[in-house]
Amino acid sequence: MVRHPGRRPPRSSSESWYWEGTDFALGRIVVGSDDPRWNQENCTGSQPALAFHTTTWTVESDGDPSFQAGPNQILFVPANAEYRRRRPPGLAECSDALWVSPRVRVDVVGDYLPDVEERLDRPVPFSWGPRPARLALFQRSLMAYLMSERAPDPLLVEEAALRIYREAHHVAFGTRRVEPLPRRGTTRAAHRDAVRAAEEIIAASYRERLRLGDLARRVGLSPAHFCRVFRRETGHSVHGYVTGLRLSEAIERLPESRGDTTQLALELGFSSRSHFSDALRSQFGVAPTSAAELVTRPSAADLRRTLDI
User: Is residue 243 domain-resident?
Assistant: First the structure.
């Protein structure tokens, strides 16, 4: 166990959910050092989930070999399963949990196991998978965003959660040398039609706070399948596509905004002025004030800097 100088492990427990939607939920669970659940029989929740732990402890369950849960593993937690926790004295545990709806489970796990719909309480035949450093950083960043942001972007959160869920399964199955199954037989033309329909919906509503599951449902696809074919057909993530439309309109409206970028940001669907500024800098490399100058009366020097010539 890693101990931080001057910081004691929490003695009490807590459970906080920072995102709860139709297809995704993300939360943080703290099991304090005095929690009676240590070293006794426990039962998992009514839905399977992924768990990302910060400390190392032993998981024991009847019928399965015990294993170490810790920062280097992702736990694939089945529903309604009995288990026991074993830990060093004084240990407290903090873990992040990712829950997805049955249809997301079917679509992601179904890439590897054709019978997943018959085993939704335990969709995979293993209890853990490796946690690559890049995926660990991505997952922790998403939780930090949810915990610090007053109005998280729904599309960003849900697309990020789906990516974490998909990559966790890709790594776990790859470690066990299980290859993805051949793609199921929806035609490429049908995919193109679904993406074109989604583009029309987004064009009419990109200023609103869109949700991934709602868009997918409206074009007849699951969220996971929708993200995959949308990126393939457009070259963009769904969130990136929506942000591009918002920023394109922002460029047109900046000269008339008279410096009131907060109102402009909110009208375009950004949750705050700072998020708008960050998106503009990421896309164009300049702040809103500089962007406004570039689209009104840019000097030759401005053009040279912008075009790098």
Answer: no
In contact, 159 and 224? CB cutoff 8 Å: no
Say if residue 271 is in the same domain as residue 219: no
Q: Looking at the domain assignment, is residue 269 inside a domain?
A: yes
DSSP string for residues in 158-214: HHHHHHHHHHHHHHHHHHTTPPPPPPPS--HHHHHHHHHHHHHHHHHHTTS---HHH
List the pLDDT tens digit at each of the 309 positions of the chain.
233 333 444 556 788 999 999 999 999 998 887 887 777 788 888 999 999 998 888 888 776 778 888 899 999 999 998 888 777 667 778 899 999 999 999 999 999 999 999 999 999 999 999 999 999 999 999 999 999 988 899 999 999 999 999 999 999 999 999 988 876 555 778 889 999 999 999 999 999 999 999 999 999 999 999 999 999 999 999 999 999 999 989 888 888 877 788 899 999 999 888 998 898 888 877 777 777 766 666 556 655 665 554
Q: Same domain for 29 and 168?
A: yes
The domain of 295 spans: 250-309
Residues 30 and 111 in one domain: yes
272/297 same-domain check: yes
Question: Which of 83, 94, 128 lies closest to 1 in space, CA to CA?
Answer: 94
